[in-house]
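Changelog note: in this version the structure field was regenerated for every chain. One regenerated record is shown below for reference.
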Amino acid sequence: MDSRQTVLILEKLVRLGFDDDAFWRLHHFREPTEKRPNSVHETIEKHLKYCAAGKVFESGGENERVYKRLKFVWKVYTDVGFPAQEKIAFVALAEAAFHAIPTHRRSVG
């Protein structure tokens, strides 16, 4: 998938008030790995820069999963009709998205 799709959905969410506090919760860097023993609070700005180059994300890869989590947040947030800037809803939805669409390193269940 084209990483610019992530840019589009993330920009829409940011306009509604989605922020770094919610974003890091759905990003795969929140989980420590062997190469990265500490979790990282990834920022929207860093991720947008990464995506802006128009990279092609691996099908089923971690960055495609980030995109799917963002779409999950967008869909639920807009379907429910939360008011803009509803920070607690974004945080809760980001957590739900992370668990609904797990990383490769986590098993479901």
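Spot check on this record: Residues 62-80 form the longest helix (19 residues). The CA atoms of residues 72 and 97 lie 6 Å apart.
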